[in-house]
Amino acid sequence: MDKRKRAFGIQLVPAVPAVMGFQNGRMGRSRMEATMAKKETTAAPKNVPTHEAFVIDGEGEKAFWTRIGCAWQHNDTNGFNITLTAIPVNGRIVLRAKKESGQ
Fold first, then answer.
1. Is residue 86 part of a domain?
2. Residue 54 has pLDDT above 90, yes or no
3. Phi-psi region of 41 (alpha: psi -120 to 50; beta: other; left: phi over 0)
4. What is this structure's pTM?
5. CB within 8 A of 69, min separation 6: which ones?
6. HSE-CB of 20 using CA atoms within 13 angstroms
7. How far apart are CA 58 and CA 66, in angstroms?
8. Helix H segments across 1-103?
């Protein structure tokens, strides 16, 4: 009997890459070209949220703020698209302008 394994009457053969030179995702490109291509594809998205959504439980200095989502302002500045990762059972939702990363 052949040394290759059989399953359900089908001979199993080790997988071989369909395209030679595809090792490490380079597809025959130089290492520098492959690195540059990765940097281009991992660029920051242009559509960044303009506001953050919080649920606030409590009042004053003892209030507890929990971030629950983001909001994108419409181009005409008359509304928002809001994405929430949680829906609060109690408390209030507040939209705040997103702070810059350096602040």
1. yes
2. yes
3. alpha
4. 0.52
5. 52, 53, 82, 83, 84, 85, 86
6. 0
7. 11
8. 31-41
